[in-house]
Amino acid sequence: MKQLVIVAAVLVVAGAVAGLIALAILRARVRKLLSARAEPESETLLDTLQSRRPTFEMTVVCRFHAPPERIYDALGEGAFSWFPLINGIRYQRGERGVGAMRTLDALLFAAVEQVTRAEPGRRLTVVGVRTSVPLVVLTYQQDFRLEPTADGGTDVSWTVGGRPAIFAFLPASWVAPFVRPFARFALGRLSTRVAA
């Protein structure tokens, strides 16, 4: 029995050390990606990334009591920073139109995104062109569609699709029902950035 306890303790310590090493590696990859200055990708590469069938895709819709223009602005600089461990979206230059580069900075994940569609007050589409964990998320696309409501609010439809580098042949659509509540909550928290 004593030997079993010792073996279990060694396994727990080894697991903790391995976990800490993995966290350190993830954070180092985030720092490396965020420290590099990203240049806009070619139209050919963007077309290729957007034409690949995502292995995971889902859509959530939320209603906000603010006009589409304010919602659109809230999707820009600092978006998603309301979550712990996420510093949010940062545009690399002042521009926010088509071709603009932005980064998503989180503690253990980072991505470089390029704006492929920008219609203020109506639609914002970005493609994740690089991530800090390419084996898990090689590329992704986010599409925000804003529709004004009769009462002066906005319905926002957020579609997210992604593709890993490995096992891309396996459909991951079965994950959507588990991720959708989190995504709906994440989008709904956008209201904290919009003054009604």
Automatic annotation (TrEMBL):
Keyword Transport recorded: no
InterPro entries: Polyketide_cyclase/dehydratase, START-like_dom_sf
Superkingdom of the organism of origin: Bacteria
Transmembrane segments: 6-26
Keyword vocabulary terms for this entry: Membrane, Transmembrane, Transmembrane helix
Entry keyword ATP-binding: no
Name of the protein described by the UniProt record: SRPBCC family protein
Organism field: Nocardia cyriacigeorgica
Lineage: Bacteria, Bacillati, Actinomycetota, Actinomycetes, Mycobacteriales
